[in-house]
Write a structure and sequence with these properties.
By secondary structure, this protein is α/β, with parallel strands linked by helices. It is built from 11 helices and 11 strands. It has a 5-stranded parallel sheet, with helices on both faces.
Amino acid sequence: MKKRTVVSILLTLAMACTLFAGCSTPTQETSGDSDKKEEQSESTDKEDDGKEEAATGLSKATILSADKLPITGIGTTVATDVKAKESYKIGYIAKNTTNPYMNAQAKGVEKAGEDMGFEAVTQAPSTADSVEEQVKLMEDMIQQGMDVIIVHCADSNGIMPGVRKAQEAGILVLTIGTPASEDTFLRTGVDYYETGYTIAKEMAEKLGGKGNIIILEGPPGAANAIERLNGINDALAEYPDIEVVASQTANFKRTEGMSVTENLIQKHTDIQGLIGCNDESALGGMQALKAANMNDVLVAGFDGSVDATSAVESGEMFATYNTDPYGSGYIACAYAVMNLNDGTEPEGKFIPFPMAEAEPVITSETVQNYKDNVAWWKAVQ
């Protein structure tokens, strides 16, 4: 197993752990103004936009142009010239095997192994979203002599015992999506803040800058959910005639998205938009709205899942965002292999993928191209 240098390990372990105190997201109904932050500083330079770092306090996103990335393409079109110079073993740990998103991410790692020439080992906890099992899987991978461990954390703080053990063993640790509560070698996956900000702006513009909106939040306290919610609220704060009449967790689940929306629309009968913080919650909200014959409400989500793609295509959903788990798994492996080959360091601790220039927003105008040429879910069909 290739070891990291002692200095690198000590530097990584020395990074201050920023806890989630003060970042927990309320699950009760809130007014539109209560959670809104100060308006985002105007800037056209995305690499120096002055936005606050992620909700966890970790390194802010480093935005690179497509030609600076170690891969080309997006979704099932991803490819690379990166090749492993030795026999490496790279392990990937998902949150679960029940979500097509996670299965696609594992497939991206496996495809990277084929293309780059390393052994890919993909695993997931038997109990969905169990961080305790994720830590145990990390410990097992340490014993198996992995050179790299990539993990989509079920919990930012809970994963840290496994992260520290791997780092102490000289193993490179990368995260995708939800970060560990301390900086690792690299975090990739989408910039959750940017996705939230972008989709909320799309909806606000479609509504002509006015209307009442419901937000279905992600799991309370989850770093990625907090980041996305902050992006949504910051975007909507730029529109004084838009009010968030309710903001409540649906835990990224379709069933909860439906039940929460059913309850909320009993009180809030005059709404123009609903943003679910992932496709599953958005689709549940959409079902509740349809059952109540509220068919003119704009619904948006995140992930670009097969069901959301179909809903956008049919006009039942306004928009979703291609978060490309397949490409995220692939690009994480490319950065890992480059470092194993010759010590190449990434340009930052958090390099988002996909980026805005990849045109990840899926609406009625772009859905056909996405479905025909890009869709990540084709990797698991």
